[in-house]
Design goal:
Largest sheet: 9 strands, mixed
Low-confidence stretches: 7-37, 292-296
Radius of gyration: 37 Å
Helix content: 55-70%
Order of helices and strands: HHHHHHEEEEEEEEEEEEEE
Mean pLDDT: 79
Number of domains: 2
Length: 404
């Protein structure tokens, strides 16, 4: 009898060990399948939103300054500059929202992958639970009560109670894991729903900001047109523009003088078109009628039309950026030195993509076309200086179309 009882104890220990091992495997499966760290997090998107808030504040500050100049015609140039700066902020807002949308796109894809993986783990865990039930049926242990009622004595009953407790602990572990997986699935679904809603809101915001930018650009163009209708204001504007152009030319000479020792000897020619969208020349170099009675101007370069607010401006020749700034006349402009006495200027851009001191290759993007500064429509103003003298860019622009 004692030998038989020892065999029973041994069998119980083996069964308990097997059941606990199954439980550990089940839990390990759950832990090991935790999804990897996200490539994009909600915190990163929240940071973009914080940046958007800062841009919104900057835009409001500029609007306050614009409103203060609203009825002052003498400050028309400053108002145009402020409108250009505000447009620049709106473009940054657009870039920010586009980054949010792209981040949501990636985050949504990640959440969908994680949801699918969690649902797959739930199916596996449920299959494990069903397998456990079938095993109990086959072993005749479906009812815990049958195990207890078959006890031979009180000591055996206590032993059986201990055994049943461990079986129940394993079954409860399986059930708890199923509950955890279901909770995880519900959370992922809620996250996904929220992310899709936020992305849609960002898309609506993007549409609104693009419309706002269109209104801002139209207001700036209307301001220049209004000034040009007023003969006195137009002449004052022209005088200010020419003074600004002289300042810029002097700055180019001063910058080249500073860099003279480091600049390579200039070579004539070798330019490419400063953009690859249009070959329409809307205004040539030289004397031109401004449309203002008694006023004309000597155009320092050529204007390339047929571009909008998204065309890339290219360095027409390799060199070093010596000026990259905003001007009331040239708007957002860049000057590249190609050697002592040789430079190119790119003006009225909506954005600058290079900094002073930066070395650029021929064809490298240095900005985006626009209508900043004294300009009533999108175009690129382009100048070439060789041997310290401006030359007509048209001789280096093959296939240009006369549109003036």
């Amino acid at each position: 009898m004692p030998a038989k009882r020892n065999v029973k104890k041994t069998v119980k220990r083996l069964l308990r060990g097997a059941l606990m091992a199954l439980l550990m495997v089940s839990l390990l499966q759950f832990d090991l399948m935790v999804p990897p760290a996200q490539a994009v997090t909600q915190a990163e998107i929240d940071q973009l939103k914080n940046n958007a808030g800062a841009l919104s504040g900057e835009k409001k500050d500029l609007q306050t300054q614009i409103d203060a100049l609203k009825n002052d015609k003498d400050d028309a140039i400053e108002k145009k500059t402020l409108l250009d700066r505000q447009s620049e902020v709106i473009r940054k807002e657009i870039t920010n929202v586009e980054a949010q949308i792209a981040a949501y796109e990636e985050l949504i894809a990640q959440t969908k992958r994680e949801l699918a993986e969690t649902e797959e783990r739930e199916e596996e865990q449920y299959a494990l639970f069903c397998k456990r039930v079938r095993a109990m049926e086959e072993n005749g242990t479906v009812s815990y009560w049958s195990v207890l009622f078959n006890a031979t004595d009180f000591s055996d009953l206590l032993s059986r109670l201990d055994f049943v407790s461990e079986i129940m602990e394993y079954d409860q572990g399986v059930i708890d894991t199923l509950k955890q997986l279901r909770a995880a699935i519900d959370t992922k679904k809620a996250d996904l729903e929220g992310q899709l809603a936020d992305q849609e809101a960002a898309r609506d915001d993007l549409k609104a900001k693009k419309a706002e930018l269109d209104r801002q650009v139209a207001e700036a163009a209307a301001l220049v047109a209004e000034i040009q209708k007023n003969e006195e204001a137009a002449k004052a504007l022209l005088a200010a523009k020419e003074a600004e152009e002289r300042r810029i030319q002097q700055k180019i000479k001063d910058m080249e003088a500073e860099l003279a020792a480091s600049l390579a000897p200039a070579s004539v020619g070798g330019y490419i078109w400063p953009q690859n969208v249009s070959k329409r020349i809307t205004s040539p170099m030289g004397s031109r009628n401004t449309g203002i009675p008694g006023a004309s101007t000597n155009h320092k370069g050529v204007d390339i039309g047929g571009v909008g607010y998204t065309t890339s401006v290219l360095a027409t020749k390799a060199g070093v950026v010596i000026i990259s700034e905003r001007s009331s006349s040239y708007g957002e402009y860049v000057v590249i030195s190609h050697g002592a006495g040789n430079s190119t200027t790119y003006a009225h851009m909506s954005q600058r993509k290079v900094k002073v001191g930066q070395t650029v290759k021929q064809g490298q993007v240095i900005g985006i076309t626009g209508s900043t500064g004294i300009s009533s429509g999108p175009h690129l103003h382009y100048e070439i200086v060789e041997n310290n003298v401006r030359v007509d860019p048209l001789k280096y622009l093959p296939g240009y179309i006369k549109a003036w």
